[in-house]
Design brief:
Endonuclease, Chain A, single chain, 17-stranded mixed sheet
Length: about 400
């Protein structure tokens, strides 16, 4: 399947779980044919149980439901939780379940996508998992995040991709039924946003998301805003940002100031002086942990998805983003990010970076000799295909039939 731009799409920005979960559950309740859902994290909390009930009800009324979770990101689901789904007819797939720390040599290659496609007509993609920590009432640790609701021809690209991801599992379990594959739908109105569904895998599309980012940055003329939870890109990406700032583009980064993992903020802070000295503006979001993976360039280009800008997302994980060229959506996302920078962020200056000369020399050496090469080094880690395992209707994830999914 090729990654290409198509016209005639419509996008609605969904900020945080308060906007995302009701729309997803409403769409699941209206599903008529099939549902494909992929998520890195699914917890047995109020959000996870609401999703479980919505999928059970859909399956019971005859909708074909495939749900794929990551075995590392969703390790603690009970047998009862999974059995309730499979007994209702939901096909539950576990990506690369880890039997033990020492047997899983590709531990860090995770299915990190957050993708939902319903009836080949409606999609959702972004960074929001199915867990209660994406809701404000979770408390100070509630995450700030984004997703988009998608309508238009690009949904079929998402649909074909999601269908192919579980195709081998479904063929093993229903070998006697002919798989017709995804059939493109016709859309009467060509007007709308230009968009591309872009994914990262460990085969032919290793750097597609990063390449789209860097292309947009190189073409920027006025403004770049990147809000990303885990920011530690390679040397080439940093060089593109610095060059953009030096040619007069207003480059703003929104990074974690109240991190869920302190090491994330520490790693990003190693890059601050290098970026600030070139004219890049850095904001630390301090209200709560930032979990978003969004960006905009000038007044037209934007992206929303699951990919962070760190070694895991750029060199190891399976990710998916949507690239959008639409002035209205760009403006909507821009208003949200401007609000964060104005009301909830601390703006850093180069004077805030207090470090001794010896440390600056060490950091510069690290940036030049290590960071510029890590994408290639990360690629040396094992790339054999992790398995996608399907729980049978009367079984749990402890007893499954293994098949292979290309990573």
């Amino acid at each position: 399947m090729k990654q290409r731009w198509v016209d005639g799409n419509h996008f609605a920005l969904l900020e945080n779980g308060e906007a995302f979960f009701p729309r997803v559950f409403e769409a699941i309740a209206a599903a008529q044919k099939d549902i494909y859902l992929e998520t890195f994290i699914l917890f047995d909390d109020k959000v996870g149980r609401a999703l479980q009930q919505a999928l059970i009800e859909a399956a019971q009324r005859g909708v074909e439901v495939d749900m794929t979770i990551d075995g590392w990101g969703s390790p603690d689901l009970s047998e009862e939780f999974i059995s309730a789904l499979t007994q209702a007819g939901v096909r539950v797939h576990v990506f690369d379940p880890a039997p033990g720390m020492f047997r899983r040599v590709h531990l860090f290659r995770r299915l990190h996508r957050k993708l939902i496609v319903i009836d080949d007509t409606l999609g959702f993609i972004g960074g929001i998992n199915f867990s209660a920590d994406h809701l404000g009432d979770f408390g100070p640790e509630a995450k700030q995040d984004y997703s988009v609701e998608v309508h238009g021809p690009i949904v079929h690209h998402m649909y074909a991709f999601a269908q192919a991801a579980v195709k081998k599992t479904r063929e093993r379990r229903r070998w006697f039924r002919r798989d017709r594959g995804a059939t493109p739908r016709s859309f009467a109105e060509p007007q709308g946003a230009l968009a591309a569904f872009v994914w990262r895998d460990n085969h032919r599309n290793r750097n597609d998301i990063e390449r789209q980012y860097r292309l947009a940055i190189r073409l920027a003329r006025q403004r770049i805003v990147i809000a990303n939870a885990y920011f530690f890109p390679g040397y080439a990406f940093l060089k593109s940002l610095r060059k953009a700032a030096r040619r007069g583009v207003e480059v703003s980064l929104i990074l974690q100031g109240n991190p869920d993992m302190p090491i994330v903020q520490y790693a990003a802070s190693m890059l601050y002086h290098h970026l600030l000295s070139a004219g890049v503006t850095i904001y630390e979001y301090c209200d709560r942990p930032l979990h978003g993976k969004v960006a905009l360039v000038d007044d037209e280009w934007a992206t929303v998805g699951s990919s962070n800008l760190d070694p895991l997302s750029l060199a190891l994980n399976l990710e998916a983003n949507v690239m959008i060229r639409d002035r209205a959506f760009n403006a909507e996302l821009g208003r949200s990010l401007d609000r964060l920078m104005k009301e909830s962020c601390k703006k850093l200056s180069i004077e805030d970076i207090q470090e001794p000369t010896w440390w600056r020399l060490v950091r510069s050496f690290f940036l030049f000799h290590i960071l510029r090469r890590y994408p290639a080094w990360m690629g040396w880690l094992p790339t054999h295909a992790p398995s996608l395992k399907a729980a049978h209707r009367t079984q749990t994830t402890a007893s499954v039939e293994a098949v292979t999914q290309e990573a």
